[in-house]
Design brief:
Blueprint lengths: L2 E11 L3 H12 L6 E14 L2 E15 L1
Antiparallel strand pairs: 1-3, 2-3
Length: 66
């Protein structure tokens, strides 16, 4: 039986929410092994002078514990 753990991670990108998600998983995988899935819990963006400047995501990353 596998035991899974969930952690919450915040990330941002100037490109897109998808890019912010990919950055979070890539960075988390440097110290967290056996990542199984990611759940985008929340999305937001910063706006300056009527333009979106920053995309932000709040993720839940699920991984298997050895």
């Amino acid at each position: 039986m596998a035991i899974l753990k969930v952690i919450e991670v915040l990330s941002n990108s100037e490109k897109s929410w998808e890019d912010a998600t990919k950055k979070a998983v890539k960075q988390a995988s440097k110290s967290v092994k056996n990542i199984r899935s990611v759940y985008v819990q929340d999305q937001s963006a910063s706006v300056k002078d009527g333009e979106v400047t920053d995309f932000r995501v709040n993720l839940k990353i699920t991984f298997e514990i050895d």
